Amino acid sequence: MPLRLPLAAALTLLAGCAAQPPRLPPPAPAAHTVAADDNLNAVAWAQTAVEHDLIYLQTYRDAQARLLAALADPDWDALSRADRVVPAKGLRPAVLLDIDETVLDNSPYQARLVRGGGEFNEADWAAWCKEGRARALPGVVAFTRFAVQHGVEVIYLSNRAKDLDQATLANLRAAGLPVAGPQSFLGLGTLVEGCEQVGSEKGCRRQLVARHHRVLMQFGDQLGDFVDVLPNTPAARRQMVQPYLDWIGVRWFVLPNPTYGSWEPALFDNDWRAPRDVRRKAKLDVLRVD
């Protein structure tokens, strides 16, 4: 049975309804909106946190304070047993530095990926490198210039492709870093006679340096900057560095990089072909909650 209202009450109700503003549909999402990116915090930290800069400054200042003692010790060497292919004694002294996130700051490239919702690809990365706009990270210019002033050669060992050598050397010079010449950059694709390259591992190139130099210190943001890591699993990575723990902060100087690195694919069986959500779930699954 329908509800019947007195005429006055009905008119009051209708007046109230007429006074209500019409309900509008929710606004459509902006066309440029992108999905949340797991790398946002890491990139924001790298670009804005003073703690990030202080870690670099602290690391390079500490290394500089130790360099002359290492130079004076003829038995001092910072290459692993696998990479020290000839005796180091009497060879020219050098320091060995990775480039990306060790010497040069590529966070603007990572920021572009976050803003655009994309992932790393070789074409965009090469284009960024050719821009030559990466800045030197805190402390590295002073350290490398100090090394050169004391007769220590600075060698940059990077997984940037060899065909990016001129752009990379120009960027290093523009950022104020010392560059002795083309031989200062050993990029991915450098041929090393008698040594078989394994993927992007740097062992062959470290062995090339070992033939002519006594390496006083190594600097990098990845374990692979110091020693080859095969296979790339969390357990193998910890096991590989175990014999060299006494070298950390003395001969090997490790810098922070939460934005990318071989630590990440180690968490999803190194399968970059897996969909992004599958890789993300694998990373979630390894998180400790107690």
Overview of this structure, please?
- The chain is of the alpha/beta class.
- Helix content is 38%, strand content 12%.
- The protein has 10 helices and 7 strands.
- The strands form 2 sheets. The chain has a 5-stranded parallel sheet with strand order 5-4-1-6-7, with helices on both faces.
- The longest helix has 23 residues, at 50-72.
- 29% of the residues are buried.
The whole-number mean of residue pLDDT values reads 91
The largest sheet is: 5 strands, parallel
Query: N- to C-terminal separation?
Result: 62 Å
Secondary structure: number of strands: 7
Please specify the SSE layout and strand pairing.
Layout: H1 7-19, H2 40-48, H3 50-72, E1 92-97, E2 104-105, H4 107-116, H5 122-131, E3 135-136, H6 140-149, E4 153-161, H7 165-174, E5 185-188, H8 203-210, E6 213-220, H9 234-241, E7 252-254, H10 276-285
Parallel strand pairs: 1-4, 1-6, 4-5, 6-7
Antiparallel strand pairs: 2-3
Helix pairs in contact: 2-4, 3-6
